[in-house]
Write a structure and sequence with these properties.
The chain is mainly alpha-helical. Helices cover 75% and strands 0% of the residues. The radius of gyration is 25 Å and the shape is globular. The relative contact order is 0.09.
Length: 253
């Protein structure tokens, strides 16, 4: 005769609350890997969302130029010399979106060639975006509300973006990945300034109405300063082990 205690299947452990087997609860819940994957896309999604407003404004401007909208004192400078503004809108939009994917670590680990290929697009796009911005600040007629202070801020931060990208390029050519990463993040932060400037202007409109010349200059500068402050925090929060880390090692991380 067979002993039932040795042949009977033991019941699966049940949850004290739901009564469901533990294995069923684990399969029904979200796995840690899936949660980490979703969390890894939060920063790129936030960056793309931040750039959505200036990209939408750029699309409206392009539609005016292509669609033959009426020429007004506000847009006459763009119709007179359209190439700089068209190149600026196209390059800064591509720079903002492609650059956001560089902040998705799991995506980059699964596609190790992505960072290098995207960099060959991002660097020229970033330089064109910055240089056309500088050209427009210097040679386009100023619209109402843009004073000397605002032009000065645009020249300073536009030049800083060019310098950051060039320093990042020089660093990776020396295989100095830590400095390459830091300078490229700074350049991207400046390039994404228009998105943060939309938020600073929105705050001012809600509480104080339309800004004058001086507050407008400070609000524009605040967008760049906020982005650079966040960039510095991010760089120091997630440093590489050493400045000499190899490019292949960084791709593996």
């Amino acid at each position: 005769m067979t002993d039932e205690s040795t042949t009977r299947r033991l019941p699966a452990p049940r949850s004290p609350r739901s009564g469901r087997p533990a294995a069923d609860r684990n399969s029904a819940g979200t796995s840690p890997a899936a949660s980490a994957t979703r969390a890894g896309w939060l920063v790129p999604a936030a960056l793309i969302l931040l750039s959505a407003v200036p990209m939408a404004a750029g699309a409206v401007r392009l539609n005016e130029l292509v669609g033959g909208a009426a020429i007004t004192p506000e847009n006459a400078r763009f119709f007179a010399v359209p190439v700089p503004v068209v190149a600026h809108i196209f390059c800064v939009s591509l720079y903002s979106v492609l650059g956001a994917f560089q902040f998705a670590p799991r995506f980059r680990r699964r596609r190790p060639a992505w960072h290098r290929v995207a960099g060959r697009v991002l660097i020229p796009c970033g330089l064109v975006a910055a240089l056309t911005g500088l050209w427009m600040s210097l040679f386009y007629p100023r619209p109402v509300g843009d004073g000397d202070l605002l032009t000065g801020f645009r020249l300073v931060f536009g030049t800083a973006m060019v310098v950051s990208i060039l320093l990042g390029l020089a660093a990776i050519r020396r295989r100095d990945v830590a400095r390459h990463r830091a300078w490229m993040i700074r350049g991207y932060a400046i390039g994404l300034g228009a998105g943060t400037q939309a938020l600073t202007h929105l705050f001012w409109f809600l509480f104080f109405g339309a800004p004058g010349e001086f507050p407008r200059a400070l609000l524009v500068a605040a967008g760049w300063v906020i982005n650079l402050a966040v960039a510095e925090w991010f760089i120091r929060r997630r440093p590489l082990n050493s400045p000499g880390t190899s490019a292949s090692g960084f791709a593996g991380r």
